[in-house]
Amino acid sequence: MTQPLMPMATAVWLIDNTTLTFRQIAKFCGLHDLEVQGIADGTVGQSIVGIDPTTNGQLTWEEIRRCEADPDAELRLAEGAKPMATRTKGPRYTPVSKRQDKPDAIAWLLRHHPELSDAQISRLVGTTKPTIQAIRERTHWNMANIRPLDPVALGLCKQQELDEAVQKAAARLARRGGTSGDAGDASPEETSGPVS
Description:
- The chain has 11 helices and no strands.
- It has helices spanning 7-17, 22-29, 33-41, 61-69, 96-99, 102-112, 118-125, 129-136, 151-154, 159-176, 188-192.
């Protein structure tokens, strides 16, 4: 179950304005029963101002009355109050301190996973296709200083993301019968050689 916005403030308001049990409030707000009891006793969250969940559409009075009548019932968020799904697609912010590591990660991916397409590398590391192509062709402006380093160790992507990308690339190669048409124009010999 999803929690209301500002669960502690919501719990304070529910304690002050309803006859709901501590268990019901704790379950709805995602808190422990003793934490809610501490809020009611004044030992926890003394300076927290209560927020009315009915004014911002998270709860309805009918739902509160239903649960006040039945101590075993659980409060449910109003349908319109459910938070939107978190955004997972698209570019991620890369801190300035890690941006210099991107060419190293690209070189590592080209060496150890030549089956990955430019688009997959671009998504994993957060870079552009021209940068990938320049490193593949060894024409990158900083080629002398590029050392292949694992992008997971550099913190540019997660191991799970890398594993999923490699599995997708392997499945794509299997469907095509072993040709690496999407991986670029370079042959495996060119990409598996040392990058210095």
